[in-house]
Amino acid sequence: MQSSSTSDHKQMGRPRSLNPKSKPIPTRLDETTEDILERYCEKYKTSRSEAIREAIHRLDQDEHQYFWSPEWRQLLLDNEQGLRNGEAEMHRIVQDLLQLIQGMSARMNSKTGSDQNETES
């Protein structure tokens, strides 16, 4: 007769999961939402359940992480360079305007001086 020891006994079925998913959540979706879910699942070759779990985890992501994603960082860098270019252009425009004002002021002073000379004579 064979002895039955626990070390010799193999369990039948699937191995236990390290992260069991034992909380079902029945959800009603409108057609638009279901279409979005289906397209996502097809595009990323994932199950509906996994896609929903991913979406729920995204809800928990820190906003800082979202706004510092590679796409956002690139947008900020692009805009920063645009602002720096704009700053240099604005500086040049202000310098040009100051020179014009100084030139106008000098002309006005010289005209006022010549006008005074004419009235004094």
Report on this structure.
By secondary structure, this protein is mainly alpha-helical. The protein has helices at residues 31-44, 48-59, 63-67, 70-120. It is rod-shaped and about 115 Å long. The mean pLDDT is 80.
The percentage helix is: 55-70%
Strand content: under 5%
Low-confidence stretches: none
Oligomer: single chain
Assign the structural class, choosing from mainly alpha, mainly beta, alpha/beta, alpha+beta, or little secondary structure: mainly alpha
Could you tell me how far the N terminus lies from the C terminus, measured between alpha carbons in angstroms? 142 Å
**Number of strand segments:** 0
Describe the biggest sheet? Answer: none
Mean pLDDT: 80
Q: Helix tally? A: 4
Helices, strands, pairings?
Blueprint (H helix, E strand, L loop, with lengths): L30 H14 L3 H12 L3 H5 L2 H51 L1
Provide a concise account of the structure shown.
With about 120 residues, this protein is an all-alpha fold. It is about 70% helix and about 0% strand.
Keywords:
mainly alpha, 4 helices, rod-shaped
